User: Fold these one by one.
Assistant:
Number 1:
Amino acid sequence: MSLYKQSELFAFLDSIGRKPNKRLSQNFLIDGNILNKIVDAASLSSGDLVIEIGPGPGVLTEALIAKGIHVIAIEKDRLYAEQLKRLDKGNLLRVIQEDVLEVDLVPLLEGRKAKIISNLPYHLTSPIMGKILPLYDKIETIVVMLQKEVAVRMSSSPGSKNYGSFSIFTQFYSDTEYLFSVSPNCFFPRPKVTSGVIRCIPKKTTSSFDKEAFFTFIKRVFSKRRKMLLTILKEEVDKEALICELQKLGHSEKCRPEDVSIEDFVHIYKSFY
């Protein structure tokens, strides 16, 4: 069975009496070329371990197993989870019928490093990425498809209008690259938005400061992104000291949050908090 073919996907859905649930972001890939590009982007080798989040009917799962990949598929929908087992060949598939946000991923790895490849449920992108990116020492590569607007934000650099708190969170934990866009025509049912595929290569983070407090600080700063950083922080830090630090980092005292790199934000945070 080739589930990326629309006729075969329709036949499967009819056989189980199921239609995609838009509320759960169930838009299934029906383009073989895009499927291959996603798989290729992860540089897989036979025997690799992949965690797939929200596999649905198993379009991506099927392609991974065909390459000899060990797959841990985490699917909240009970019927889809049960049906995924039909794809297993050679004991390569383990299905977890659960909400990924409720699953402790580390014990599933059994000491191995994994790659994460997924067409993420778009309405859950932020909490899912918030869960998996801090596992940088357990994950080799993350290749995910999500709403293009979000993918662009996650991979944007300082100076861009799309650079913000989610960019900093993503790139604090990984080297992030926007790979390619995916047309709505590549899905059934056809979504209203264009999708994008990004690749995150986790990087070792040795900083010992309170990261949760740091990201809370970043969100607060970017909630006023149109203002100068000096104005945003004037009630919290000494003005002259902040001006001095900004100048050391090569920034004007009139700089705004979108002008400041992740490394410089870390320096500012450690200097004043």
Note: Residues 185 and 191 are 8 Å apart (CA to CA).
Number 2:
Amino acid sequence: MLKENQSAIIRTIASTTVGALLIVYRAETMRWITIAIGSLFLLSGIVSCISYLLEKEKIKKGNSVLQSTNATLKQSRPLFPILGVGSTLLGVILVLMPETFIKWIVVMLAAWLILGAIMQFVNLAGARQYAHLPFLYWLFPSVTLIVGIVLLVRPIEVAALPLLVIGWCLVFYGVVEFLNTLKIYQMRRLYRKNIQEKMMT
């Protein structure tokens, strides 16, 4: 089961963990997540710029040596790290103004709920070939999808409690994903067993 449903289990753990953190810490979690992301961008940009300066200095010294020996072959300058400078600026913005970026994280998490719900619908639709699914299994992803759409379309109206709502929805999604994975796995086993029994008779 672990091998066949590895991605579903990973999604379950990730959703439940992030959801639990949002429920317990809410704004603090989002603020520190934003700062952490900004720090990664900042670190990446600084490393890129330092690498450029070191490489530039190395080539400059190499060309000086070649010039003193009257060699005609010279190394070209490294390309200016535009992406590194951009990463540094973005990192500074995220670290210094995390609250501004939280709105965009809310939108991304809402999109995650919508895509997750759609994926659950697809999995359930595929599982119908093995057996009939109760209405309750279709209700769970429907709730997740509706909440995700509301948060995505009207984030300002639900700005007071978006992190709490998204946190509970992520936990809800993670639990439902696990239950669906378990149910579909059992249905597949039963279906294959029935096929094997028919082939043996």
Note: Residues 27-68 form the longest helix (42 residues).
